[in-house]
Predict the 3D structure of the following.
Amino acid sequence: MGRNSTSHADGIRGSVHSVARRTRPPGKRALARAACIGKLSRSYTPGSRIVPNTEDRYCIIGAGPSGLATAHQFQRAGIAFDVFERYHDVGGIWDIENLGTPMYESAHFISSRTQSAFDDFPMPADYPDYPSRTRILQYLRAYANHDGIRSRVTFDTVVKRATPVDGGWHVELASGEHRRYRGVVCAVGNNWNPVDASYPGHFDGEMYHSSRYKYAASLAGKRVLVVGGGNSGCDIACDAAPVARETLISFRRGYHFLPKHLFGVPTDAFFRSGPHLPAWLAQPLLTLLLRVLVGDLRRYKLPKPDHKVLETHPIVNSQLLHYLAHGDVRAVPDVRELNGERVTFVDGTSADVDVIIFSTGFRSAIACLDADVFSAERGAAQLYLNVFPDRAGLYVIGLFETDGSLFPVVSKQAALVASVIVAQRNGSDRAAWFERQRTGARPDLSGGIKYLASRRHAFYVQYDEYVHHLEKMLKRMSSPVRGAA
């Protein structure tokens, strides 16, 4: 798009055929710029390849949605960069062929088409309300193609380590190559490190984390237990329902269920079509609406929610209640112990099962950073606006959870990083103003909602509140700052 006459939608359809590996080979000007080599030499190991001609560039790690958004914004801002992607193509978790992705065959967006696009790159109008994983992957690859970002990515390349050094960053690739960059953007995604569950006893059947689940056919004719009531766990139980001999889903606590449509409109689009309501008003109104449209969840044998609506990540699923109502899925409480093929639950009931799938979430991690540089285990307190740690030249894109779509948020995160880098490069008063904001009091990104204290909510932000703060910062960074505190 731009330099040719291909339409936006045609570009997306065409991109599914454009999956050939395109690797941008690294430069080979070894031993150039002796000063830079001197700074890095103490980190080098014998046999390492040295490519020291990148000290004025930024290293973007990952070519999934967050990395692509960053590359797009950096290119628009005239910031020099390289992108490294460990897999053979762009797409991140949305490419089911990538080893370790939690993607499964039936996966769809749980946010709707009109609310889920990157800024300045809408999804095609002929996409359905909730696009499938294949359409999302096509969309991501079209996004990478339309402004030439794909050609800027070095594929099949792992960043082993990134370390701050002498006002820049030393980046070591798994190939043994070392480079120096002005800064590093970690855009590695948030769903690559599964959290396994552990229960007393032993189990004689199959048992694995949901990140390994791919196809409903693998569950055909089996007695299946899904442990965990998040969106993925509900999807997998719905996959199993038509093909499995029996399907159980285990809930540790009760959740609020949001239908995918309200009054014929995608739920997220419906709520964002009206005025923004404060949490103290929005929560009781939504509770009342769900009571009318969904009813008492206990009639499906689901536990009563122990929290207010929106205080945990919402379950957006219209199918599970259908299967529960028809007896094709049965809800059970948390697991107490395992004994051969038999699983005993905390209420004393038990069931024989062949397969246990743990949909027990993921932990956040950035493997290429040492713990003293940045540790996701310490939560969002170490990040200003969930993006800026207390390390010069280090930026984190996409490390958050929210009740809206990721793509528009990472677009704004990346745009803010680009605006900060440009302000610093130009020595403008905006850079000093931003630094005062970064080191000052942290804004409340909860939107007044008291999220449950859990691992998943360590980086949680309320979508509208967070987008408002990012947009406000972007506006201030694009206009002169006169005496702003």
Notes: The domain at 8-193+363-477 is CATH 3.50.50.60 (FAD/NAD(P)-binding domain).
